[in-house]
Amino acid sequence: MKSSAHFPQWLSALLPDSLHTRPREWSRAALGAATGFLFSTWVCSHLFGLHMTVHFSGPLAASAVLLFAVSSGALAQPWSILGSYLCACVVALTITHFIDHSLVGAALALGLSLLLMCPLRCLHPPAGAIAFCMVFATPAPGEPFWQPALVAMTAGLGLLACALLYNNLTRMPYPRPHPGASTLHRTRDPLPSERAGIKAGDLDHALDELGAFVDVTREDLELIVRSTEKHALRRSMGDIRAGQMMSRDLVHAAPATPVAKGLYLLTHHQLKALPILDRDKRLVGIVSLVDLVSALRSRRFNLRAMLGLQKKQVLGELMTSPVQSVDVDAHVVDLIALLSDEGLHCLPVLDDGALVGMITQTDLVAALHRDLLRHLN
């Protein structure tokens, strides 16, 4: 009974998982792979002849699929293809020189190439096929014995050049950029959102414990985990929107408002930022208390300003534009990163392009506190 109950589960494991990519991405990858393969083989056929190029067309087509369809994967990065092709060439040439052009030699070249790619961190599956094919790719009479390696490396470089150009032109960053450290406060502290919960070191430990090949970079895995946490938090926090948290009785100014007047509005209402609206009441900028204090301090030591020979500054000269804003229907989870990791103290809230409110870090803390009390009760 037990084995019969597990049979449907085992059978379902044979079925493919659902795809999380769109048909547009399929078309983009297909066109890129075909173009890159055609270009690299065309170059090699003109330089070394079609007969030698055909020997490596199979592995090259497999590399094209990785470089254009899963370009963010660890197996598709530039060092993976260049380093793995180089490993395959060195191993295959050594095997053919000391052993022979046989199936045993080809299998040995495949195994040794894989063994060499792992410590060099350049694992790329098609390179195993490159090593296998190179054992049987005998150069023409009069050609050097290392010509097959030259063909393979030329094809790999041509394919990589196409991937670098095509992927970035189609807005698919390649190679996968490493996320830089936060320099907002110029300290070694992690971002506020990364100080609790899963950390980068936890992912490293998890990958070490797994001890198997995973075709995903640690950076991509971290993005997946944090995105999953974000969606789970969004579900648990219900339907708290920006429109429920924002301040509605707004204090604002115009671009032509003098700096002294803007400073008075900020200090009188105990605000840290002041939205700037044009004549049509559209948000065109924002100024902070730090901006205005710095401007007044610089004029204090300006001789022309002290003598009244320099016109008074207005807020339009100091305001930050364009302004980072959110829609009135933005979920509270989407505001957390903006008001913590990006260092913003307040966020203008727009409804159909018009300013309808402001959300501060205090408003966010109050909303999170209310949600915590709701769960406790």
Automatic annotation (TrEMBL):
<dbReference type="Pfam" id="PF00571">
    <property type="entry name" value="CBS"/>
</dbReference>
<dbReference type="InterPro" id="IPR046342">
    <property type="entry name" value="CBS_dom_sf"/>
</dbReference>
<dbReference type="InterPro" id="IPR051257">
    <property type="entry name" value="Diverse_CBS-Domain"/>
</dbReference>
<protein>
    <submittedName>
        <fullName>CBS domain-containing membrane protein</fullName>
    </submittedName>
</protein>
<keyword id="KW-0472">Membrane</keyword>
<keyword id="KW-1133">Transmembrane helix</keyword>
<keyword id="KW-0812">Transmembrane</keyword>
<feature type="domain" description="CBS">
    <location>
        <begin position="319"/>
        <end position="374"/>
    </location>
</feature>
<dbReference type="Pfam" id="PF04982">
    <property type="entry name" value="TM_HPP"/>
</dbReference>
<dbReference type="InterPro" id="IPR000644">
    <property type="entry name" value="CBS_dom"/>
</dbReference>
<keyword id="KW-0129">CBS domain</keyword>
<feature type="transmembrane region" description="Helical">
    <location>
        <begin position="82"/>
        <end position="110"/>
    </location>
</feature>
<feature type="transmembrane region" description="Helical">
    <location>
        <begin position="145"/>
        <end position="166"/>
    </location>
</feature>
<dbReference type="InterPro" id="IPR058581">
    <property type="entry name" value="TM_HPP"/>
</dbReference>
<feature type="transmembrane region" description="Helical">
    <location>
        <begin position="29"/>
        <end position="49"/>
    </location>
</feature>
<feature type="domain" description="CBS">
    <location>
        <begin position="246"/>
        <end position="303"/>
    </location>
</feature>
